[in-house]
Amino acid sequence: MKVYVPRDSAARSVGADEVAERIAAIAGPGVEIVRTGSRGMLWLEPLVEVETAAGRVGYGPVAPEEVDGLLAAGLLDGTAAGLGLVEELPWMRRQQRLTFERVGIIDPLSVDDYELHGGMAGLRAALTRTPAEVVEEVTASGLRGRGGAGFPTGIKWKTVLGAVADEKFICCNADEGDSGTFADRMLMEGDPFTLIEGMVIAGYAVGATEGYIYVRSEYPDAVATLEAALELAWGNAWLGENILGSGYSFDITVRVGAGAYICGEETSMLESLEGKRGTVRAKPPIPAFEGLFGKPTVVNNVLSLGSVPWIMARGAAEYAALGVGRSRGTSVFQLGGNIARGGILETAFGITLGELVDDFGGGAASGRPVRAVQVGGPLGAYLPASQFELPMDYEAFAAAGAMLGHGGIVVFDDTVDMSAMARFAMEFCAEESCGKCTPCRVGAVRGVETIDRIRAGQDRKLNLVLLDDLCDLMTDGSLCAMGGLTPMPVRSAVKHFGEDFGE
């Protein structure tokens, strides 16, 4: 008999370890406790699942002191009152899980479990093709960068494949610093072999022999899981010399950042990987030509690389059949902030913002009307409830003056002061700027000062014009998206919530 209890950081923070220990102590040796990733329904954590003939029956949230009563009521045979079959819950049933298809289902550090549920099929398929054919398959899938920029993954790989160099690198940017985002962490903790497999495929496709995973220091559980997974991968010939008998060799190293938000930007991350202070590089040259240590480098996000094994195993056409327009496949959306049901869900592009916030999320946790949502992290636009029909795809958001970013959605009810949120955007930029360019370094400080004058009622009209001019300067003059995108939340707050600025 198997009982599944998440080992995800979110579940552990609310007592999952204690719940697992209590079940093991009472149930005895005949029951196997399997520690999995989270299903993504964070409001139900710790979520306990019991294997039955009909499927996994869920119970949650389960507090450690409730374990004894649940066991007495029939938890082990699934007859205790609970949530029912987990796969049939509305949250799960409406999803289309590709990248996250194994998260919450398998033991993340079991190679047997991984292969039993389709793992390594993508790499095996890739190794039967030429590198150029692998690149073409990824290109045909329409996969775009899930880290926020949305750049076509296949085009980036093709550039690195065509670059002539004695050494090339694959760098996974796992410095997930955006507010309201946690999908990278959940994949690394819940299915690390998917990321490893995706990186090996990327390395084979472009001719790289070495890869790095740059993880933020605030993710100690993810780091520990990745390092344990790498050891297992080396022991099973999934990494190292002669991978799966193919003659191809590839190695991966985990590097931990020091907490700088700017290192989520690809060139700052490369500087940090080289042992330098994390500051932005001027482009060109782009990393695909001169990246890590001056060599051609693929820089992709966790979710981008984690999507590749599915594409190679199932085919580009099946992946591209999902989504809308130029936004193909699925995206992992994360619901946070003042939300009744927070968590992660994976579904095809094209679902509306309102469906995510109201149908999946259940509206504001406070029970009050939702006034605004910020999509795409601290540099994303604030959108009012009147724009909830906006479809979740790159082009639709760009046309609305917003961006999808990493798929994080932070919800605010009608008590929020949007002038304070605009001020926070400038303050965040001033705090996290690497300082290399003046528009970002100085402009953000001047932005805070200008918004303070507006909030204090000093020459509001004049200062709103000045704020708009400052936003133009930061957008056009900053070296990277740190300063270049900070005006997006500021301008959207003024545009949609002008009454909070006295206008």
Highlighted features:
4 domains; alpha/beta; single chain; Glutaredoxin; 503 residues; five-stranded mixed sheet
What is the compact description of this entry?
By secondary structure, this protein is an alpha/beta fold. The chain has four domains: 2-93, 3-Layer(aba) Sandwich (Glutaredoxin), CATH 3.40.30; 111-320, Rossmann fold (3-Layer(aba) Sandwich); 323-413, Roll (Ubiquitin-like (UB roll)); 418-501, NADH-ubiquinone oxidoreductase 51kDa subunit, iron-sulphur binding domain (de novo design (two linked rop proteins)), CATH 1.20.1440.230. The protein contains 21 helices and 16 strands.
Compile the SSE list and pairings.
Layout lengths: L1 E5 L2 H5 L2 H12 L4 E5 L11 E5 L2 E5 L7 H7 L10 E2 L4 H4 L17 H6 L4 H7 L3 H11 L11 H10 L6 E6 L8 H8 L1 H15 L3 E6 L4 H16 L15 E6 L9 H8 L23 E5 H13 L1 H5 L2 E2 L2 E2 L1 E8 L5 E6 L4 H8 L9 E6 L6 E3 L9 H6 L8 E6 L4 H15 L5 H18 L4 H18 L3 H5 L1 H10 L7
Parallel strand pairs: 1-2, 6-7, 6-9, 7-8, 12-16
Antiparallel strand pairs: 1-3, 3-4, 4-5, 10-11, 12-13, 14-15, 14-16
Helix pairs in contact: 6-10, 6-13, 7-8, 7-10, 9-10, 9-11, 10-13, 17-18, 17-21, 18-19, 19-21
